[in-house]
């Protein structure tokens, strides 16, 4: 799968760098992201093991770890977003479902096309995304339960039970 063009390191036509662990790291734009991910899936990268987000202050970096079981190769894909939006890959890897929901919940990344993008760890009424650098740590939020057994979020420590 590896080829050389002008002595640049390329993988499936994309330049890459090597991480400290020797894994190929490929940086993609949002426009080339989904078509390239489809190519990876078709080329045998059948296992999506991880999706995470990194708040770089000026942009969010979304990171994907893909594994080809047949070649025992792992590639890391990184895509930058300034508007916190990237296409969902749930149509390619069903394992993306919960990872994308977790990143939405904790980082506020909107995965466009996700079939059920809602919070997975915090109640729907929670304000903000706790792993973002601009998250307000000074205003406590409390989770309580209403009479119907549904969670709700309040800023009043005396509200609830």
In short:
With 161 residues, the chain is of the alpha+beta class. The protein has helices at 30-42, 96-107, and strands spanning 2-5, 8-11, 14-15, 17-18, 24-28, 47-55, 60-68, 73-81, 85-87, 110-112, 142-145, 151-154. The model has no long low-confidence stretch (mean pLDDT 92).
Features:
12 strands, 5-stranded mixed beta sheet, 161 residues, single chain, 2 domains, 36% strand, 3-stranded antiparallel beta sheet, Beta Polymerase, domain 2, alpha+beta, elongated
What is the helix tally? 2
The helix/strand series, from N terminus to C terminus, equals: EEEEEHEEEEHEEE
CATH fold group of the largest domain: Beta Polymerase, domain 2
- Give the helix level as a range of percent: 10-25%
The CATH fourth-level homologous superfamily of the largest domain: NADH:ubiquinone oxidoreductase Nqo5 subunit
Q: Pairing-aware structural class of the strands and helices?
A: alpha+beta
CATH C-level class of the largest domain = Alpha Beta
Total individual domains: 2
According to DSSP, the number of beta strands is 12
Reported CATH architecture of the largest domain:
2-Layer Sandwich
How does the overall form come out from the CA principal axes?
elongated
Distance between the termini: 60 Å
Low-pLDDT stretches? none
Largest sheet features: 5 strands, mixed
């Amino acid at each position: 799968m590896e080829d050389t063009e002008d002595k640049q390191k390329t993988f499936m036509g994309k330049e890459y760098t090597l991480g400290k662990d020797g894994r190929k790291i490929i940086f993609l734009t949002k426009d080339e992201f989904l078509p390239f991910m489809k190519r990876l899936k078709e080329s045998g990268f059948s296992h999506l093991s991880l999706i995470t987000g990194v708040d770089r202050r000026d942009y969010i970096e979304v990171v994907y770890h893909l594994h080809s079981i047949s070649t025992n190769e792992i590639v890391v894909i990184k895509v930058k977003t300034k508007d916190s939006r990237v296409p969902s890959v749930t149509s390619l890897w069903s394992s993306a479902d919960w990872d994308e929901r977790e990143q939405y919940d904790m980082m506020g990344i909107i995965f466009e096309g996700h079939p059920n993008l809602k919070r997975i760890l915090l109640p729907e009424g929670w304000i903000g995304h706790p792993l973002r650098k601009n998250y307000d740590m000074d205003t406590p939020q409390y989770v309580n339960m209403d009479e119907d057994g549904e969670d709700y979020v309040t800023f009043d420590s005396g509200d609830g039970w």
